[in-house]
Write a structure and sequence with these properties.
One of its GO terms (molecular function) is DNA-binding transcription factor activity. The protein has 333 residues and is an alpha/beta fold. It has twelve helices and twelve strands.
């Protein structure tokens, strides 16, 4: 039979409200009463309902994460899984919970965020990406709701955020390709309004400029989704118009589509690089070179920043830049 708070109160000889105050560490309860209640809890092996306790304290210890609609099939984009893993590890260590909501039924993330903030069930939100003129950030700032963004906001003042140095990561990749002799390098991205997408394109442009190569808009294609089929279509369009020797993408899923087309056309000499270094990258034919963005660390530090704010901890950090690592494989030629 499940032990209840009434059983503890009876064992300790106090009211149930007193047990609740002990559980919430109320300073008005004497040490003698606390000891008596804690002894009863231990004796009965009572496990308090965490959610009920939190609601009684006006603190749910629940963080909300709204997943974009394309994350519906999580297995197709492991970035979300890895980021969620990092969030969960830190949250669990701090006795916080995370609830995940998908933006579905024609709703975007912004509409879902407005809904979840009205539930009174979550204390803070983790944004999984940042757009230019981001309406979610503006809304959360206006209602003074605690949040952290995975991705660099346009205005970083008084905003908690974590990100990679996307500009530098892409610059390094393109620079390495140029050093290998490539001069016609295609760029395939998606959702160009994301600050991540903009920063990676800037890195691509700067690497060309520093090496004395002209930027050619015909070599750059942006699609609407980070999916394999969109990478395939983009590569078909790119190769139809240009003679290129290398292609960089802003996501491994796009690169998988590119790789499929290159294999179909026996274009074995074209170098290909992706971003995110998801597990399936090394099993491509040929194995895909990719930039590891350490998505689990992005999630971990996002949860850390938000929980520290919720706990009113003094911290000098308002953001973290997570290191990236170029993983060279056979597609890097």
């Amino acid at each position: 039979m499940k032990v209840t708070i009434k059983d503890v109160a009876k064992e300790a000889g106090v009211a149930t409200s007193t047990v609740s105050r002990v559980l919430s560490n109320n300073p008005k309860i004497s040490e003698e009463t606390k000891a008596k209640v804690n002894e009863a809890i231990k004796k009965l092996n009572y496990k308090p309902n965490a959610i009920a306790r939190s609601l009684a304290n006006n603190k749910t210890k629940i963080l909300g994460v709204v997943l974009p609609s394309e994350a519906d099939d999580l297995l197709t984009n492991p970035f979300f899984i890895n980021a969620m893993k990092g969030m969960s590890i830190y949250a669990q260590n701090k006795n916080y919970y995370i609830t995940y909501v998908f933006a579905k039924d024609g709703k975007n993330e912004f509409e879902s965020i407005k809904e979840i903030t009205n539930t009174n069930l979550i204390e803070g939100i983790i944004l999984l990406r940042v757009n230019e003129n981001d309406e979610s950030i503006k809304f959360l700032n206006n209602i003074e709701f605690p949040f952290v963004a995975i991705g660099r906001p346009e205005k970083t003042e008084d905003i908690l955020w974590v990100d990679n140095d996307n500009f530098q990561a892409m610059y390094n990749v393109v620079n390495r390709l140029i050093q290998k002799g490539h001069k016609k390098i295609g760029f395939i991205g998606a959702i160009k309004t994301l600050n991540m997408s903009k920063d990676r394109l800037k890195g691509y442009k700067m690497a060309l400029e520093v090496n004395g190569l002209n930027y050619d808009e015909d070599l750059v294609i942006h699609k609407q989704l980070f999916k394999e089929n969109t990478g395939y279509d983009a590569a078909k369009e790119l190769l139809r118009k240009n003679e290129i020797t290398a292609i960089v993408t802003t996501d491994d899923l796009l690169a998988f589509g590119v790789s499929q087309l290159l294999n179909e056309k026996n274009l074995e000499k074209i170098s290909l690089v992706g971003f995110n270094n998801i597990q399936l990258s090394k099993y491509q034919t040929p194995p895909l070179a990719s930039v590891d963005i350490n998505a689990d660390d992005l999630g971990y530090y996002a949860a850390k920043l938000l929980i520290e704010k919720l706990e009113n901890q003094d911290t000098v950090n308002t953001h973290y830049i997570v290191n990236t690592e170029f993983i060279e494989r056979e597609s890097f030629k």
